[in-house]
Please model this.
Amino acid sequence: MFRGQQAWRWAPVPVRSIVGIGFIVHGWAKLIRGPAGFALLLGRIGVPVPWFTAWVATLAEIVGGAAVLLGAFVTAASVPLIAMMLVATFKIHLQYGFSSINTIGLASNGPRFGPPGYEVNLLYVASLVALILGGAGAVSFDEWRARRRHPADRGGAQALAAPGRGRKRELSEFSRRGRAVEKMDR
Model:
């Protein structure tokens, strides 16, 4: 299905989907339970103004997750989400080790699990950094905006003339910000 140089445009779509949905689900859970419980946790780990921070974090997860899912303003949405993941890593999860699944025993009804390590936090951070560096990809608001700004660039790398015939060839590389039209003379 994906051949040539168009495939790279689709690579961020599953990453955007799972990361966006993950943040929305976690933010929604905080909102439904009420940010007051989350504020207590934030207060215990020493975060300043825990009630305010709980509301900001909850809304950042919902709004930022939706932005990532839709591929809208991915860089701007990712920065606060990365910051939140790093705070969670160093303030909460680091003490429990790397693994997100910490089996601490076996009960009659199955395994017992301890608190998760920082593995999932790093996966979120790595995914967000990949989206920042590589762009939101196909079917994204960012791509749509870039195409509106640069209508001649329709995405993907395209050779407009065959190489080696002495004609000017343009290689158009559609980046996440709609820049980068590289011209090559042959």
